[in-house]
């Protein structure tokens, strides 16, 4: 069985991983060894994004473009954060399930659906932040989007009530 778990810095995504390791891979799904791909998607930095139509406008007008060193530094920082998040997730899987990691850049909801289709996974697992209808309408919901657009079965793991009320 091939499974993807979407991981970000939230407690809810780590709870979803913990739940999956404890309940899915702890004897409930038998047979051959399972492989979990831990996927972290970070959004591209908007700080250094230059619109494709931006260019110096002419004499006396200057445009400030970020140096490649600044862009590279920002990218390395994002990669280090992603690696730290996935390292924590790998520790949760150690000795329980075979796991691999994948870092992607883009919109998390789109990338999770895309990679699950490309890798032909059997199950996509994501955590739920427990947003209400209004917040979900304005902020969007990765789990809601994946539930409607993923081409594979999806498991949305809701956090326990104690965890949800502690954030309020």
Automatic annotation (TrEMBL):
<feature type="domain" description="UspA">
    <location>
        <begin position="2"/>
        <end position="158"/>
    </location>
</feature>
<dbReference type="InterPro" id="IPR014729">
    <property type="entry name" value="Rossmann-like_a/b/a_fold"/>
</dbReference>
<protein>
    <recommendedName>
        <fullName>UspA domain-containing protein</fullName>
    </recommendedName>
</protein>
<dbReference type="InterPro" id="IPR006015">
    <property type="entry name" value="Universal_stress_UspA"/>
</dbReference>
<dbReference type="Pfam" id="PF00582">
    <property type="entry name" value="Usp"/>
</dbReference>
<dbReference type="InterPro" id="IPR006016">
    <property type="entry name" value="UspA"/>
</dbReference>
């Amino acid at each position: 069985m091939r499974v993807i778990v979407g991981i970000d810095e939230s407690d809810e995504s780590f709870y979803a991983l913990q739940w999956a390791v404890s309940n899915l891979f702890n004897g409930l799904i038998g047979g051959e060894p399972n492989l979990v791909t831990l996927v972290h998607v970070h959004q591209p930095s908007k700080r250094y994004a230059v619109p494709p139509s931006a260019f110096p406008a002419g004499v006396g007008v200057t445009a400030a473009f970020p140096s490649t060193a600044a862009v590279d530094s920002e990218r390395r920082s994002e990669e280090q954060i992603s690696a730290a998040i996935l390292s924590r997730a790998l520790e949760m899987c150690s000795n329980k399930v075979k796991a691999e990691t994948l870092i992607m850049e883009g919109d998390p909801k789109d990338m999770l659906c895309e990679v699950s289709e490309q890798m032909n996974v059997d199950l996509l697992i994501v955590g739920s932040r427990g947003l209400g209808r209004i917040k979900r309408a304005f902020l969007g919901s990765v789990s809601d989007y994946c539930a409607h657009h993923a081409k594979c079965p999806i498991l949305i793991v809701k956090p326990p009530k104690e965890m949800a009320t502690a954030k309020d």
